[in-house]
Design goal:
Length: 78
């Protein structure tokens, strides 16, 4: 399991990307991949056990600190 830290970004323009806004503190997506992503600000796991390719265009708004996060663009190849 690889843990990666996401990049804090400005909230994207509406409709430009898929924004996940979980209302709970914890991963917005739990899958069966081999990568997990943490909030770049507070370290909360926002994407757990996902495939890199599935989350490339996803922005996750952290329920704990309120920052928007994107996966790092230079992540490991799937
Ligand atoms: Zn956070």
């Amino acid at each position: 399991m690889a843990h990666q830290t996401m990049v804090v970004v400005d909230p994207p323009v509406h409709g430009a990307k898929s924004i996940l806004e979980p209302f709970f503190i914890g991963p917005a997506i739990k899958g069966i991949g081999r990568n997990s992503y943490r909030c770049g600000s507070c370290g909360t796991v926002l994407l757990e056990s996902v495939h890199n390719r599935d989350v490339l265009d996803v922005v996750v708004k952290c329920a704990r600190c309120g920052n928007c996060n994107e996966p790092p663009s230079d992540g490991d190849a799937p």
